């Protein structure tokens, strides 16, 4: 059985999404950081996402180079299962997001200071 995200993990998801990461992507990242590797169906269940939401998150994560995917051979007919694994530790991902957000904040503060000067505040 697949474990759902804990309260602490849900809080990490919330903070990641407030830092600018799409909420569904944040759920996938947190779940994969916990499990190491998982198939799409397990991600859907644990992160409480629908299959299309997981697919979209995976597409983005692949484009960013944050995950790697491998096909698992399945008995019988049908599509092979895909298994996903983070290519970076969650600490590195968080560090990168924090750095990016701090740069945005510095730029916003600089822009606000310039605006105040221009209007004579």
UniProtKB/TrEMBL annotation:
Protein name: Putative transcriptional regulator
Database matches in Gene3D superfamilies: Winged helix-like DNA-binding domain superfamily/Winged helix DNA-binding domain
InterPro entries per the UniProt record, alphabetical: UCP037373_trxn_reg, WH-like_DNA-bd_sf, WH_DNA-bd_sf
Organism: Archaeoglobus sulfaticallidus PM70-1
Alphabetical keyword list: Coiled coil
Coiled-coil residue spans: 91-118
Entry keyword annotation includes Glycoprotein: no
Organism classification: Archaea, Methanobacteriati, Methanobacteriota, Archaeoglobi, Archaeoglobales
Keyword Coiled coil: yes
């Amino acid at each position: 059985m697949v474990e759902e995200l804990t309260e602490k993990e849900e809080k990490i998801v919330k903070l990641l999404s407030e830092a600018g990461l799409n909420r569904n992507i944040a759920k996938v990242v947190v779940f994969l950081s916990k499990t190491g590797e998982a198939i799409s169906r397990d991600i859907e269940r644990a992160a409480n996402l629908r299959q299309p939401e997981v697919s979209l998150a995976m597409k983005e994560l692949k484009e960013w180079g944050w995950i790697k995917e491998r096909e698992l051979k399945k008995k019988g007919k049908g599509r092979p299962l895909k298994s996903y694994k983070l290519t970076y530790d969650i600490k590195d991902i968080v560090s990168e997001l924090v750095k990016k957000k701090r740069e945005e904040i510095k730029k916003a503060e600089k822009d606000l200071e310039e605006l105040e000067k221009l209007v004579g505040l």
